[in-house]
Specification:
346 residues; alpha/beta; 12 helices; 7 strands; 43% helix; globular
Length: 346
Amino acid sequence: MQGGGFYNRNSALQAANLGSALPLFVAAAAEYPVAAASTTPFGIADYGASQGRNSMIPMASAIDALRPRIGPDRPIVISHVDLPSNDFTSLFTVLDEDPTSYLAGRANVYPMAIGRSHFGEVLPMHSVDLGWTSNALHWMSRNPCPVPDHGWGVFSADPAVRAAIDAQLDADWVAFLQARAREMRPGGRLVCQFMGRGPESHGFEWMANTFWQSWVDTADAGLLSQGELERISAPSAGRSAAQIEAPFRDGRVTGLRLADLATVQAPDPYWDAYRNSGDAVQLGRVWADMMRAANGPSFAAALDPGRDRGTVLDAVTETLAARIAADPQQNRSFNVIVVIEADGAA
């Protein structure tokens, strides 16, 4: 994610996406089997926290659902997990200064940050009561192979590339689940929202293709080379319901139960605003800024050392905004909502 708070300022789409999972997270907090008179800190993990703005409402909602049940004095520890390169400064600035901070008016809440990949263990065994992750698990741990014909391997014309992407998605999902099986307390619950696949198509084709074509246009304009263009590959893709269910069916994950799974049409708040305003230029701008914030760094990582990445990203962003403004469309993509429970009683 682009740092300096840029992602926080340009992630309204991600905020809209998590809305479908939020009621399940609140219900998990409200129904959690709390041990009577326990003084053990209640552990909430926020896997893939990014710059924090989209974590504030979920964490605040969970705290408010828990307090009547655990009492005012029991400590709540919230662990925000993301890669070491994440902009944790922006996260803590939001916590300290933003009116939506979950610390505002809530006592005995202790946030911390962990700069490690959530595809491995990041917290002590049996320390997590509630887990939350939004807009994160469609990101893979690595690019499994070169993808010379598209910015996303899942949209490559090469079936071998698409198969490699699916294999990486599977390995990462299993690794994520196995780590959570060790971290979660018996009876703990984990709510996940991330990009899924539709029954007839992956989804997100319009924007993925338009973003990629904007990079091709920028290469054609001489701002990056063909070799650089062929190295670009964003390590992300949606999973189908069958891919999510597979490790639970075949026994590769133990200690966890898949309690709920749904694939839903993703919202498009940018299109909703465009329908009200008719402002195609603004539609292009918000989409271009969001795509730069979320995907720009992973695309730009393929550029040659010494290349002015800011200049290239500026050009791609302007090209993308113009393309969208010239041909406004509603985004068609999918979210998956997953609820997982740890075996045993709390």
